[in-house]
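[09:14] KT: can someone run the structure on this one? pasting the chain below
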Amino acid sequence: MSENTLSIEEKFAQEVKQSDVDHHKPTAGAMTGHILANFKLQEMKLTQAKFYVKGLNAASLKEVFETLANNETLWFEKIAHELVIENEVIPTTLEEVTRYGKIAEHGQNKYLDATSMLENFAKDFDFQNIFITRAIKLAENEEKFGLQQLLIQLLSFNKDAIYQVQSLLGKTVREDLDEEDDDDDD
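[09:31] RB: done, structure tokens below
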């Protein structure tokens, strides 16, 4: 049966089945789907922080959070477009974002102090880099060089976001982000 003769329900069922297969391999498209879902979750967290941040630096932090959220949206659009032209599926529903997104988000985060919000975002951006670096390698292996190039640029953006957030905290770029294994000293 050709794709044109399938019903909408059948087409979506095929997409869901293929997506599940791709997420268990994994493929560059599937890994990048995690990145996109994380973007949507991170964008929501940044927007939440923008509206609820308190303290003497609240006005400037609102701008920082808004700029980062807007950049997440722009990157989502760029990468989603590249996936579509690579004939890959992108997360476009809330259900897909919550299934594939791995960034933790909680309603109570709006009550965190500004420092805790910033620390949380530094860790989130750092965590996203795990998926980005994996997707870069998979895209190279699959010869999806346009996607690979975008992901390399995204990695640079994410590292800069970490730098900005860590600077606001008065920390070096990797301070408190690189976990050292204390068990090695035994």
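[09:33] KT: thanks! The mean pLDDT is 90.
[09:34] RB: yep, looked fine to me
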